[in-house]
Amino acid sequence: MSWLILSGSLIVLLGTGALLGAALGLTGFILLHFQANGATALAINSAWNLLTEFTLSAVPLFIMLGDILLASGVSTRVYNGLTPLFRCMPGQLLHTNIAVCTLFGAVSGSSTSTAAAIGSVSYPELKKRGYDPAAVVGSLAAGGTLGLLIPPSLSLLIYGATQDVSIGRLFLAGLLPGLMISAGFLLWIYLRSRFGSSHIAPEHGEGFSWRDTGAGLLQIWPLPILIFFVLGTIYMGIATPTEAAAMGVGVSILIGFLWGDLTWRELWNAFKRSSIMFSCIAMILVGTVILAQAVSLLGLPRGAVDMIAELGLGRYGVLLMVVLVYLVLGCFFDGISLLLMTLPITFPMVVSLGFDPVWFGIVVTLLMEVGMITPPVGLNLFVLSSITKGEVGVPSAAYAAMPYWVILLAAVGLLTLFPQIALLLPDLFS
Fold it and tell me: Whole-angstrom Cα distance, residue 98 to residue 94?
C-alpha cells in the first residue's frame, strides 16, 4: 500500500503540473499521515534541521561563484589563453572546448553554467573559422557535463550534505574520474578528426608555437589562484567546503573586477540569479527531506532490497537496475532534481548491498551527466541550442553528443570494475 501511495501520488501531482518540490513534500506528508500514524512533525523537524545545516550553506555560495565568473567574462580570457595549445592537433579548437570546460568546471560546480560560459565564447569564433556547428555544440554539451563531476561539484555537495557523506572525500573522488573522462573526450575528438569520413574542423592548423602557448598559459594565471582558494584549502584541511566557497566568492569578485569585465550591475544580477536558483533547489530539498523521512520510517528501502534479493539478481544486478532507472528518468528530469528525487530510495538500497557511499556518489553524478545530454530534457542541449540561436537544433545537438554519451556510460562501467579509480585519492589522503 505504501508503494502504491508513493507512486500514485507522485504521478498524480506531477501530472497536474505541480512543482517537483511540492509534489515530493506532499507525497511524504500523505505517507506519514496515512501510513505512519500521523508522524508529520518528524518531517518538519528534518526539513528545518537540513536548511539550518552549516554544510548546506556552501550550495548558494558555489552557485554564486559560478554566476560571478559567468558575468565577469573570465571564460573568454581562459579560452583565449588555452587556444594556442591545440592549434596543430587534429580537431584543433574542439580540444580547447573540452580543456577549458575542464578548467572552468574546477571553479564553477555547475554543468549548465560551464556550458553557457564556454559556449557563448566558443561557438561564434569556431563557426567563423569553418568548424562544423553540430560538432562544436556536441563537444560543448559534453564538456559542460564535467562541471558536475570535477570538484567543486554542486551535485557532490548536495549528495554529501543530504546523505551525511564526507564532502572532502567526495571532492577527492571526483578528480581522477573527471580527468579520465576529459581525456576520453579529447581522444574521441582526435580520432574523429584524424580518421573520420567528414571534416568537423579545418584541415590545416595555424602551427604550434612554444612562445604563443607559454604566453597564453601565463595569461590565465589568476585561475589557479582561485582553484587553490576553492579546492586547495579543502584538500589541505585549512577550510571546510562552506568556508572555501565563501573565500572563492570573494576571490572571484576581485578577479572579476581586476582581471575580468565585472561591473557592479553585473555583480548584482549575479547575486539575483544565484538566489533564484538556490530557492528552486531549496524547495526541492525540503520536499526530498520530507519524502525521505516517510520512506525511511516505513522501511521502504529495506523492503525493496528484500524484494530484489528474492529475485536472485545479486548486488551487481541490483546496481544495473538502478543505472537503468537513472538513465530513463534522466530523459525527463534535470540532474539536481533527479538526484534529490531518487536518493531516498537508491542510497540506502545500494549502500546496504555493500557498495561504498563515496563511490556511489561519483556513479550517480556520472549518470546525471548522461541525463544532461539526453533528450528530451537534456539541459545542456537546450542551453547550447539557444546560444546558436536555433542554427543547431536540439535533435542535431543530441546526435552530435551521442559519442560522448557512450564515453560517459563506459566510465560508469570502468568505475564498477575498478572502483579504486574513484577511491584512490580519498583513501590516500584520509
Answer: 7
